[in-house]
């Protein structure tokens, strides 16, 4: 397969490179930093040697003539190495560390703030449509997602089925993050019904018959494993009574679909709509992350029922985006965007839908969702 160039950019100083399993962190490092000194903690011997005696990292690196860029892969497996990394950063100012990881949980417990100011926090996301170019298929993205490990697999559908199991077994069970893996599996299914919706933890706890405190900790685990994220309500200069609950998303549309149970009572259009909304969310998050411009992603929901799926707000961007899993526009499709525009006339507003043409509907620009995704390029304005 031809190499697919990523939008992720190397930095001049040391940094943490986080990202869910399979998003291509190690592949990117090996391709773009081929002469770096790599320590892979997924290799059993390396893990045993460095986790049992962290100071060995100092001994090994200082024995090198000029290690230059040092990569420690899966740093969360041995967070005790951070103290040694901190020491080496102070002693050897010309060394650069890249610390990759698929979980921030153990690092938080170990005090990742120790390196604040000395190491940036960067993220590798699933593929963006503009990275894939002509290879991008909206139908495939909604079916099997955009995780490179899955996209590049000979059988993407089979790879997707194994993905959630891989996380449960390796990241959750083997690292002892939960005591009852059966409870966590039931929680995952129940949480998938909250994808793209305002989060009600009490309701999720009732659905999976697990205590509320346990469910709260499970949601935190999902976020620490980078498998999910929450969006807060946009409340700057609020002129209306707003919802106080965040929205919840699983990080990839395909992973959401693989976790979400289906049956006679589950409407396919509901699952398709959740996958489409999640796909847009993951693209906007990647655009913000790779662009390097300070911006945040929110949603907007009033207590009277007006809701806009996404609000992107930063120094150089302010836009509201509504996503509709329909090829047709209805009279009320843009009502929430119109209400948002009344409160925030400075904002650009867009409606994304499954139709094929760009069209203004009640002075709101409506775009084919596929066009929006393909034209979303980090570093370029979000203006269409």
Q: What is the string of SSEs from the N terminus onward?
A: EHEHHEHEHEHHHHHEHHEEHHEEEHEEEH
Integer tally of domains: 2
What is the overall silhouette? globular
> Strand content of the residues, in percent?
15-25%
Mean pLDDT reading? 91
How many extended strands? 14
Which structural class should the secondary elements be placed in?
alpha/beta
- Number of separate helices: 16
Detail the poorly predicted runs.
none
Distance between the termini: 32 Å
Radius of gyration: 22 Å
**Helix percentage range:** 40-55%
Order of adjacent strands in the largest pleated sheet: 9-10-11-12-14-13
- Biggest sheet overview: 6 strands, mixed
Structure description:
The chain is an alpha/beta fold. It has two domains: 15-123, P-loop containing nucleotide triphosphate hydrolases (Rossmann fold), CATH 3.40.50; 129-375, no CATH class. 40% of the residues lie in helices and 18% in strands. The protein has 16 helices and 14 strands. It has a six-stranded mixed β-sheet with strand order 9-10-11-12-14-13, sandwiched between helices. A hairpin with a 2-residue loop joins strand 13 (359-361) and strand 14. Helix 7 (138-144) crosses helix 13 (253-259) and helix 13 packs antiparallel against helix 14 (268-291). It starts with 14 loop residues before the first strand and ends in a 9-residue tail after the last helix. The model has no long low-confidence stretch (mean pLDDT 91).
